[in-house]
Amino acid sequence: MEENRNLLRSTYFYDLPSELIAQTPIEPRDHSRLFCYNRKTGKILHKHFYDILDFLHAGDVLVVNNTKVLPARLFGFKSSTGAKIEVLLQKRIDLKNWEVITKPAKRLDIGTEVVFNENIKCVVTEKGDYGACKIRFEFSPNKTFEEHLMEIGTMPLPPYIKEKLKNRDRYQTVYAKVEGSSAAPTAGLHFTPELLQKIREKGVEICEVLLHVGLGTFRPVKEDNIQNHEMHSEYFEISPEVAEKINKAKKEGRRIIAVGTTSVRVLESGAALRSEVEGSDIEKDKGNYVLIPQKRETKIFIYPPYKFKMVDALITNFHLPESTLIMLVSAFVGDIDKTLALYETAVQEKYRFFSFGDAMFLE
Fold this sequence. Notes:
The protein is α+β, with helices and mostly antiparallel strands. 20% of the residues lie in helices and 28% in strands. A hairpin with a 5-residue loop joins strand 5 and strand 6.
């Protein structure tokens, strides 16, 4: 019966007052609140994010996602009628071709031209479901595509954020490097350069992985049985150097702490049984996993009763009801009802929710 509950979308619902949905980021970044839960002791502590130092130990490995958010929301008009069109960049195919989501999709047919300004436009080359399209950009060669994008694009804030973002950089982590995301890995928004330096000085190793977050992150689960939900694929990278550091830490019994669900998805997608990699004794190494360097797409969908292979602790934000992200957190906590009870406590304590909200530390 419990296993059946794990598979029901409705199991992951909770009531959230709309006033608790954070509309603007806290300043400074590390002054957001921190909800701490220890799975072994069941203890809950209410702290601030800068207190994360008290929960990290020398030898820990903190894994962050260094993706950078593109100004991926574009507003243009149909060249034939002047009708307004919104284009959300989803995934780059090559230099000029992209997978996108459009609004209103019914106004667009294959061959429709959308103009953004006198120097850049796009043509619809393929249509899909729910506003998904493939488009080809055409732009003047006096600037790179990225330079054009910086001029016409705005940050692709989630639909539940109604306030205008005053500073583009507040929807980027301070360690963002590799452009390609349509949404921020929001658990990382709480870190400042000064806090990261203090973490290093404490003897914590910081490793960077890459996962380009797609707009599928905000796609609701519509299937009653969550097994029927199809995840959007997202590109990730694990370098040989990072894999070596994490494998060494795991072998020495040191903790791997993932910053955000995107880092979790990278680590769990990249894990493989040591016995399969090294040809060692399968029974002896049962359950012993290593991280494999790789660059590929992942559709990993984590929900209870998933058994984590690489991650020992998790820093994350509070997620939407019935979302794939709260399902992942429920798997990490190990109990759906406990997860919902933690969220209920956060509501009672008036924590701020979602992308610009407060953080959780689950150890």
